[in-house]
Amino acid sequence: MVAETKLYDVLSIKPDSTQDDIKKAYRKAALKNHPDKNPNNPKASELFKEVSQAYEILSDPEKRKVYDQYGLEFLLRGGAEAPPPGAGGSGGMPQGFEGVNFGGMGGMPGGGGGGRTFHFSTSGGGNGFNFSDPTSIFSDFLKQGGAGMGGEDDIFSQFGGGTSFGGTPRSGRKESYGGGARRRERTPEPTTITRELPVTLEELFRGTTKKMKIKRKTFDPRTGKRNVEDKILDVDIKPGYKAGTKIKFKGVGDQEEGGSQDLHFVITPKLHPVFTREGDDLVATVELDLKEALTGWKRTVTTIDGRQQAIERAGPTRPGFREPFPHQGMPHSKKPTERGDLYVEIKVKFPASLTLAQKAQLREIL
Q1: What secondary structure does DSSP assign to 192-236, as a single string?
Q2: pLDDT tens digits for range 12-60
Q3: Are the beta carbons of 97 and 120 closer than 8 angstroms?
Q4: Which residues pair with 20 in a beta bridge?
Q5: Are strands 192-199 and 181-186 parallel, antiparallel or unpaired?
């Protein structure tokens, strides 16, 4: 029989749980609510703090023994004297502690009224027990093997971020806990520089590699000076890339607080004298005079890959008519062996003026 079960309820375990049970429960709850995994969720950060502090007591056999016998208030006060009536199994809350809502945790059979809240602070009075920083608790937990369920890299690969083992998240966020208050300072993220990369339609058709020379500022920690160095980047342009496609280089720009800048090249097609691009299709415009549009015409169009494509029509051709040529367009970037279509679009040039005789003749013909 224990004095209270609040810390066990925080970890969703029973009072008779083994040390392995406690470690596994803490690992699961800490990973779920870790600030790096929930950067914009203050509630998760509070839960992370609470499960870490519960684990700090329950993982220590001596502290757990005192807690089981007398409750949290007695432990925080240092156990100088027997707890007052109601501080043990009655579920009484320590006086002067700020409230923390454990929403989502299980009920508390040892607490008065079976409520879902539990209140404690980071520091006890007098010579009582002081909680450690939650990130330090978690770091120590990982260094000790994390319940035998994988190392540091294995654990942090679950949420793609990671924590440096000094109590400071790798994202640059620093947290301090005390008296229920929390302060965060963020190291600025490295900035991203975007540069246009002009390319011809033929280069986007064939694919190419461009060598781009950049200048980047670096910092020499030995001399404390900023240096400028040249760097050559091989920019791989795959066949079929479209306007706006980004080719990304990580950490190649200027060194600044938080790391080195990222550089993104944005594909910017140059105007083509013959073709316009519509997705993976190409459109070539052929201009006809009114006589050709009415009586028939013949043209030859050079395709994007250099072949000669003949096209002709014997009858009247309306403005805006498109003649399709399947699989003569641009390659699909994800399936280079497949291509879009080529369309030859007709533009009709009308005469600026007509004589009275010409108008009369047209009226008779049409």
Answers
A1: EEEEEEEE-HHHHHH-EEEEEEEEEEEEETTTTEEEEEEEEEEEE
A2: 999 999 999 999 999 999 999 998 888 888 898 899 999 999 999 999 9
A3: yes
A4: none
A5: unpaired
